[in-house]
Amino acid sequence: MKNLGEHAIVIGASMGGLLAARVLSDFYASVTVLERDEFPSADTPRKGVPQGRHTHGLLARGSAIFEQLFPGYNDEVVVQSGGLIGDVANDVIWIGRNVRLANGPSDLIGLLASRPVLEGHLRRRLLALPNVRAIGTCAVWGLLTDPARTRVTGVRVRADGKPEETIDADLVVDATGRGSSGAAWLEELGYPSPPDEKVETGIGYMTRTYRRRPADLDGKHGIVIAGSAPNWRNGVMLAQENESWIVSTGGYLGDDAPDDDEGFLAYLATLPTMEIHDVVARAEPLSDYRRYRHVASLRRRYERLARFPEGYLVFGDAICSFNPVYGQGMTVAAEEALALHQCLRAGSTNVARRFCGAVERIVDIPWHIAVGNDLRHPRVKGARPPMLRFINWYLGKLHLAATHDSALATAFLKVVNLMMPPSSLLSPAIVGRVWQGNRRPVRFIAASAAGETRPDGAPS
């Protein structure tokens, strides 16, 4: 690879920052990752990842990219830490619109492990590279620029309680997540802050870890239940390392699950199927209850800025943080890492503008998937143009047909796993299967304590 400079800095050592640093290592003589947290000695949760104690899994597209950037990563997580590799379409139960999608073998290979394990293996692989180092307990306080303020030349930091100092760099990447100070830093330099888009969902969920038994879920690796009418509650149970389940359940707009055994089980009983409830009811708890709240999906539109300094990029959740129930964040960051690689291969000239354009195209798909589905909830505020209403109606019909058509279910899951664009579901072959499938009786899930289920096929 070509050498674009002597030094690059990545702010933030979460998944996005680690992926960005891996790409930069191909183009810069040295790369430094700066992290506010102290790095844990073992694969344990850290303060700077508030969702780190909750349910995680790597979508098929993310798993493939991780493997491309770090060959052998997936097997390493499995062999060394007990993670699980499985067929996303066949080893996981998927329930949406109150129907169960048909399982069937596919080429969608995902990776299941806790967030600390996924991050720990990634960090160790990255720091094994000879030109990458990481500095923990190091807070970044601002950006350095040239006299004309047209190029970022480094950062101001305070490391481990020491006085403020500066670190020079040819490129600075902000991967500090949803709480990024990037917009404020730009304003300090005389640049406008980016416009943003926000969809308030008030998603909150409760999580607990349990002992996993081989017979649970008939040997499946997990179950994912998407929120739908009448109560819009969601639930997920995924296999993790150390023969454990991680279970999360919750709802929109303050409809939180209780943090006591009786209340938690009662809440699980309101989901469209009792499968998670029945496992939890007899399982040995391995952790306390943990609550997480995600007020709104947030997208910062850096690509719309007319002025932007060279030598500075924004990455991952610092650009867009999605409703976490869709599990898209790590995979989108992986897609952005590939886009960064392509941009840098073309040289460092105007790289910020080119990268922002590439990220816009990457983020558009998962953003519309997540927001479009959230806007099915009648109390989530946002525009519902006719095309969105049609798409949601069509996806309702697709779900009904996919209850007895595993090929159709796999086609849908390829979109969910960001392997195929949503437009693929409108191909003549798929539309034909949807039409044929809706001529057959539908296998509805038995009504739960939440009330009667419904086909949910009307425009919303």
Give a written overview of the molecule.
The protein is an alpha/beta fold. Among the domains are: 5-57 and 116-195 and 301-369, 3-Layer(bba) Sandwich (FAD/NAD(P)-binding domain); 205-294. The protein is 31% helix and 23% strand. It has twelve helices and 18 strands. An eight-stranded mixed beta sheet has the order 5-4-13-14-15-12-16-18, with helices on both faces. It has a five-stranded parallel beta sheet with strand order 7-2-1-11-17. Helix 3 crosses helix 4 and helix 10 crosses helix 12. The longest helix is centred in the last third of the chain and has 24 residues, at 351-374.
Which key terms come to mind for this protein?
globular; alpha/beta; 18 strands; FAD/NAD(P)-binding domain; 460 residues; eight-stranded mixed sheet; five-stranded parallel sheet; single chain
Query: CATH superfamily membership of the domain at 5-57 and 116-195 and 301-369, which one?
Result: FAD/NAD(P)-binding domain
CATH architecture of the domain at 5-57 and 116-195 and 301-369: 3-Layer(bba) Sandwich
| CATH topology heading of the domain at 5-57 and 116-195 and 301-369 | FAD/NAD(P)-binding domain
Estimated helix fraction: 25-40%
Major sheet characteristics: 8 strands, mixed
Helical segment count: 12
N-end to C-end Cα span: 50 Å
Strand order of the largest sheet: 5-4-13-14-15-12-16-18
CATH class of the domain at 5-57 and 116-195 and 301-369: Alpha Beta
Low-confidence stretches: 447-460
Please compute the radius of gyration using only Cα atoms: 22 Å
Overall morphology: globular
